[in-house]
Structure formats: C-alpha cells, structure tokens
From TrEMBL, chain A:
Keyword Manganese belongs to the record: no
Species per Swiss-Prot/TrEMBL record: Tetradesmus obliquus
GO terms under cellular component: mitochondrion
PANTHER family referenced in this protein's UniProt entry, alphabetically: CYTOCHROME C OXIDASE ASSEMBLY FACTOR 6 HOMOLOG (PTHR46690)
Alphabetical UniProt keywords: Disulfide bond, Mitochondrion
Keyword DNA-binding: no
Protein name: Cytochrome c oxidase assembly factor 6
SUPFAM superfamilies (UniProt xref): Cytochrome c oxidase subunit h (SSF47694)
UniProtKB/TrEMBL annotation, chain B:
Protein name: Thioredoxin domain-containing protein
A Gene Ontology term for the protein's cellular component: mitochondrion
An example Gene Ontology molecular-function term: metal ion binding
Organism listed in the record: Tetradesmus obliquus
Family: Belongs to the SCO1/2 family.
InterPro entries per UniProt: SCO1/SenC (IPR003782), Thioredoxin-like_sf (IPR036249), Thioredoxin_domain (IPR013766)
Keyword Metal-binding tagged: yes
Keyword set includes Nucleotide-binding: no
C-alpha cells in the first residue's frame, strides 16, 4: 500500500509537494535543516510530510537538507571572511 | 674553379683533403700566413706542442692528398677512367639515405598510430559489458543478445528511488524523443533494477510505463542482477535498517551500447537531456558512416558465435 506512494508518479508528486512545503516553513523560521526540535509552526507540515513519503525517503531528504545547509554555511563563511579581509571594503568600494 | 672541379681534381682520397682545403680557404689571411710559416719562435711549450701536432696532421693529410691527387690524375690521364665519387654520385647517395629515413619514419608512425587505435578499441570494448540473463516487465527472458540491432541506453536503478531515478528516467525519455524527432532513430531504452527483492516484473512494468512507452524494464533473481551489475561495473548497496523500507545506493550512470552489443560510452548525472541527445546522435551518425554492409555482417557473425566480443571482454578480466 505504502509502496504506491513511492512507485507512482502521482504518489511521488504528493510526497515532493509536502516535502517542499515543510522545508519552506523551516526556512521561514530561519532554519536550514531539521536539527533537534521542530518549531511548532511547522509541526503540522512535518506530520503531513511524514505521511506522504516513506520513512526512508523522509530520512533521505533530511540528510540532503543537512548537506545543503553545510554547503551554504561554508559559502557564507567564505563570503564573510572575504568581505572583511579583501583589499577594499565590499560595502563601499567602487567596482573596478 | 667550380666546387665540382675542385673535388674532381683532388681525386679518390680527395674528399677529406678537399674539405681540409676548403677549411684552409675559410681561414683568415693571418691564420693562413701562420699556417704557412708554422714553425714560430717564442711560443709557450704547450701551445707549441698542440699547434705542431695539429699542423703536422694537416700537413700529412695534405701530403697524402697531393700524392693521391697526382696518382689519380696520372692514372686518370692514362686510362681515361673517372673517379666513381662524383658530385652526382654524392647527391644520389644522400638522396637514397634521405629516402630510407623517410620510409622508416613513415612506417614507425603507422605502427604507433595502429597501436594507439587498437588500444583505444580494446579499452572501449573490453572494460564494460558482458553476457547477462534477466526478465523483462512481461516476464519474458531478456539477454545481452536482445541488445543487438539498435543503439541501446542502459540505466540501473530501482522503483523505490526517491528522486534521482525518476529525474534520470525523465531525462532519458526526453532525450529519446529528441533523437526520434531529429535523427529519425529509435534508441532502445533499458531500465535494470538493482533491487530484485522488491522489484518484481509487475512492479517494474507499472514503473517504467509512466516514463516512456518504449522503456524496457528488467529485473531478475539476486544472482542474475548481481552478475549483470558486475558485468557493467555498477556499484550498488542496500542501506537502511528496515527489511521492507530501504534505499539502494547505486552509481548514477547511463550506458550507451552500439548495435553490435558493444559498450560505447557512459553518461553521468551532469548531462542534460539535450547533451545526451546530441552525443547519442553523434554516435549514431558515426556508426552509420561505416559501411552498412560490414556492420550487418559483423552483427550476424556475432549472433552466430554468441557475442564473441563480449566473451573476450569477460576473459580479459
């Protein structure tokens, strides 16, 4: 029964939209990934996500989000460090 | 006197002396004067010895040359024979030498090119592919022989794949339609399951028909799937804790097989549908360029002997 969620196009579409809605909510709460407690605002979307997709898929998507969050953090850190150390302040220097 | 006359005048042994005389004439006048009056007072002992030795040798050679020249001139005058070493003969000799060198270089280059071509063919054919026997979505057997006759694209995946397999199969379907529209060629798409536990022929049938009407779905026993994956060097690994709900890590690769059943190339996740279509169409065109008759004969021979090419590939491992 739950296999239908995974192996049909319509089933997958339902899962994807629930996933996207949940992660969008997380982003609005300022979170990039699922770590520890989920904010109360997103709890319902989380429940919907977990019912629309197989547990292995939920785990898979959460891991992908964590990986993406790590990548973004590294990028932000690099940009920030360059902003303060690069010759000429990024905030004010004219583009040459 | 022309160069040729001078050479003739110096006769048989004249070649070396001729060169020496030429060298002599290239010397500065003061050097020529020094050579003429070669015994100089008040030189350092070392320099004196070295110079003496050099001039002595030169004088000896010139002496021989002069004698030989006289003898040759005398004999030449007497018998009317000419020296075999003429300018023309020298030219001929040099020409022959250059010709031999050119032929040798050409042969060497051909050999290297042949080796390179053969090594590329071997790498392409021997490394990937091999005989396999699986079951298609209608429960009928499907072997590597069923891949003959048309270009095929193989993709290994599983029906419970969260995102990658659906994306890749959508991409493949789009590429297939593009190739059919632009090159008027129907590539044979094949989906091979790496999850034999859950992917029965019925499950595979429901799965593949959603992507493309021509998409063939293959599955089989655990051993059969393992054997086929090994032949195509596909990595796959079951993850997760549950017995019924798990994912399968696998290499995300599409394999292009030519109408003779040989592996041509592979495409990774980074290829777009357009890039896939363009590349496959290039291979189709290249295949069509080689004489159709020869290809048909080769394919027929392979059918007779039972994919001898793949057998070789297997043995090489």
């Amino acid at each position: 029964m739950s296999s239908e969620k995974a192996t049909t196009r319509s089933g997958r579409a339902v899962c994807y939209s629930a996933r996207d809605a949940f992660y969008q909510c997380l982003r609005e709460c300022g979170l990039l990934e699922v770590k520890g407690d989920i904010p109360s605002k997103c709890k319902q979307l989380r429940a919907k996500f977990e019912s629309a997709c197989l547990p292995s898929w939920v785990k898979h998507f959460d891991e992908l989000q964590s990986k993406r969050a790590r990548e973004l953090k590294t990028q932000y850190a690099a940009i920030n460090s360059k902003a303060t150390t690069a010759a000429g302040n990024l905030a004010g220097a004219a583009q040459k | 006197m022309s160069l040729r006359r001078q050479a003739l005048a110096t006769g048989r042994l004249g070649l070396r002396a001729f060169a020496e005389t030429q060298q002599q004439q290239l010397l500065h006048p003061w050097q020529q004067a020094a050579a003429a009056a070669w015994r100089q007072p008040a030189r350092s002992l070392q320099l004196a010895h070295a110079q003496d030795a050099a001039w002595t040798r030169l004088a000896m050679v010139r002496g021989f040359a002069a004698e030989a020249g006289q003898a040759a001139a005398a004999s030449g005058k007497g018998t009317g024979k000419k020296s075999p070493i003429t300018f023309n003969s020298m030219l001929l000799g040099v020409g022959c030498f250059l010709a031999v060198v050119a032929v040798a270089q050409n042969k060497a280059q051909q050999k290297v090119e042949g080796m390179m071509q053969r090594s590329q063919e071997v790498v392409g054919k021997a490394a990937v592919g091999g005989p396999f026997t699986l079951t298609d979505q209608d429960g009928k057997p499907f072997t590597n022989e069923n891949l003959l006759g048309k270009f095929s694209v193989l993709y290994f995946g599983f029906t419970h794949c969260p995102d990658i397999c659906p994306d890749e199969l959508e991409k493949l379907a789009e590429a297939l339609d593009t190739i059919e529209a632009e090159a008027k060629y129907q590539v044979r798409p094949v989906f091979i399951s790496v999850d034999p536990q859950r992917d029965t022929p019925k499950a595979v049938k429901a799965y593949v028909k959603e992507f493309h009407p021509r998409l063939i779905g293959l599955t089989g026993s655990e051993e059969a799937v393992k054997a086929c994956s090994k032949a195509y060097r596909v990595y796959f690994h079951k993850t997760g804790d549950s017995e019924t709900d798990y994912l399968v890590d696998h290499s995300i690769i599409m394999y292009l097989i030519d109408p003779a059943g040989e592996f041509v190339t592979f495409y990774g996740k980074n290829f777009t549908a357009r890039q896939l279509a363009d590349s496959i169409m290039q291979h189709i065109a290249k295949w069509g360029d080689s004489s159709a008759a020869a290809q048909e004969a080769a394919a027929a021979a392979r059918l007779k002997t039972g994919t001898a090419g793949s057998q070789e590939g297997l043995a090489q491992r």
